[in-house]
Design brief:
mainly alpha, 4 helices
Length: 86
């Protein structure tokens, strides 16, 4: 019983400490995702990508998030001819 109370107290303490930083962490994760998508689609945008062959396998998994990404990057329509999402 005491261990359960102690675990709850530790969990509460961790939540209180991390509360102000949740938005910062979410923003940094979004920035990392945006950078990864830029690297993934860089060859199609005209930027040389030395690992283009290996990133081709990832396209089906990331295609759903492509629309949100290009809107966040300030592109109203898809910059890629082969991918129509709008």
């Amino acid at each position: 019983m005491l261990t359960d109370k102690l675990k709850q107290l530790i969990h509460y303490y961790e939540e209180v400490i991390s509360l102000p930083h949740k938005s910062e962490v979410a923003r940094e994760l979004r920035n990392e995702d945006d950078f990864f998508l830029l690297l993934l689609y860089s060859e199609m945008l005209g930027i040389p990508n030395p690992v283009y062959y290996y990133t081709l396998e990832l396209y089906p998994y990331i295609l759903e998030s492509f629309h949100d990404w290009h809107l966040r990057m300030g592109m109203d329509k898809s910059p890629l001819n082969g991918i129509r999402c709008c």
